[in-house]
């Protein structure tokens, strides 16, 4: 194994039956519930995304804690009261905050027991993101690549274009439309390139705003939607088409 690692070849580690049982017990795994996990680097917005899926705001009682620094140190379980008997959501500790190699993150967090994993990224793909995708493929776990905080990213693009909130209030929508299309196009191409460079199959990236997703989850659709509706639709379709709900 050491010689393979020296050549940059990451070892394949298959969990034992006992490790699987312990991992399931840790996350309160139930055979009749579909378990979604959200993983990604620290600060990528995992906790806010979990809250959005559960129809909660970040300050609501029982919401996943959010903050500037990484607040998730252990995998935490959350439910949407509207689907409490069907779905469970899990917030995984941010990669990059734990003293473990990228290739060990998947196994150390017991991600192999989940029914579906969302790989959330902010600005760029990391080696841990690639390792998660590779391991999910190995364990036949459905994955969704998600980029969050899109409202803030689009605003940053607008500012790079010279937008000034005080001076350009009358043409804000024009700036927004151009920045939005640029951001979406750039994000999709970036993910496509990253997947190709890592020799992964091409896969869609869902571009979302957590605030917008939270409103969509409550059936209160705002005007500015990117991929929020399609993400929810595809996630729930994946669950309902699985053997658990057959």
From TrEMBL:
IRG-type G domain: which residues? 32-228
Family annotation (InterPro entries): G_IRG_dom, Immunity-related_GTPase-like, IRG, P-loop_NTPase
Describe the family membership recorded for this protein in Swiss-Prot or TrEMBL.
Belongs to the TRAFAC class dynamin-like GTPase superfamily. IRG family.
Q: Please tell me one Gene Ontology term that the record gives under cellular component.
A: membrane
Q: State the protein's name.
A: IRG-type G domain-containing protein
Report keywords, A-Z: GTP-binding, Hydrolase, Nucleotide-binding
Q: Name one GO molecular function term.
A: GTP binding
Query: Carries keyword NAD?
Result: no
